[in-house]
Design a protein that fits this description.
Largest sheet: none
Low-confidence stretches: none
Number of helices: 15
Structural class: mainly alpha
Helix content: over 70%
Shape: flat
Distance between the termini: 46 Å
Strand content: under 5%
Number of strands: 0
Mean pLDDT: 85
Length: 239
């Protein structure tokens, strides 16, 4: 298997060298030093500095996930702007520090809930912390906006309403997420919600639609939603 991978790597490098009319000596480097030569060629001729910086940043993020946060805090200290604070909050979300992320988002909007993007991020953060009252509070600030309708934020709003016992309002918002060709995970959760409320036929219709569309998904989507489709199939079989 390793042999074929090396051959494939060499083949790509040779093809790239020919296509881009690189110096002939690269062919000797690639062929005489199969692994090392190919790696050197990729690093120096294929990947741009931007690509290498991106890879390096990803590696650093894995080894030291708080480094990005530390760097962004320094950036914020240097220039205390709305965008820098949001960048910092986003980085905190990436490491699942929702409490501090929410604090930064709240400082950024400073009580003015007109930035829909940030309010949506607040909704996601508060939901992760199971602060359903705050989810509802934030959602109500933007629920009349077009970007809110059918969004993940509206879905979390519906789930939060259910948590506090406002079942009818919850269903009203959850049903907004029932859109064909998308929102498969959310629609599966909606179907479970409807089953719990005794609305079996409505749930079956949603699950059947998910299963029907799964037959025509692209390969990436089929992989992405495999677990949801499998769970939907199990749920349909149990009804």
């Amino acid at each position: 298997m390793q042999y074929f991978l090396i051959i494939a790597l060499q083949g790509f490098c040779v093809y790239h060298a020919i296509k881009n009319k690189n110096n002939y000596y690269w062919f000797f480097v690639i062929m005489l030093l199969p692994i090392l030569g190919s790696i050197i060629y990729l690093v120096t001729q294929v990947f741009s500095k931007k690509d290498l910086d991106l890879v390096q940043n990803e590696i650093v993020s894995v080894i030291n996930p708080t480094k990005k946060v530390q760097d962004l805090r320094k950036q914020l200290d240097f220039a205390d702007t709305f965008q820098n604070r949001v960048y910092l909050a986003d980085a905190l979300v990436e490491i699942k520090d929702y409490t501090n992320a929410i604090q930064e988002y709240e400082i950024a909007i400073n009580g003015n809930y007109t930035d829909i993007g940030v309010v949506k991020k607040l909704i996601g953060g508060y939901y992760q912390l199971e602060d359903y009252e705050k989810v509802i509070f934030c959602a109500e600030k933007i629920q009349d906006k077009l970007d809110f309708k059918g969004s993940r934020s509206q879905f979390l709003h519906g789930l939060s309403l259910e948590k506090i016992g406002a079942v009818e309002k919850a269903e009203e918002h959850l049903r907004q997420i029932d859109q064909r060709y998308s929102n498969y995970e959310e629609r599966y959760i909606l179907a479970k919600f409807l089953i719990e409320k005794g609305k079996i036929e409505d749930a079956k219709e949603i699950l059947s639609e998910i299963l029907a569309k799964s037959q025509h998904m692209s390969k990436p989507n089929r992989s992405k939603y495999r677990s949801v489709v499998n769970e939907a199939q199990k749920l349909v079989s149990s009804l």
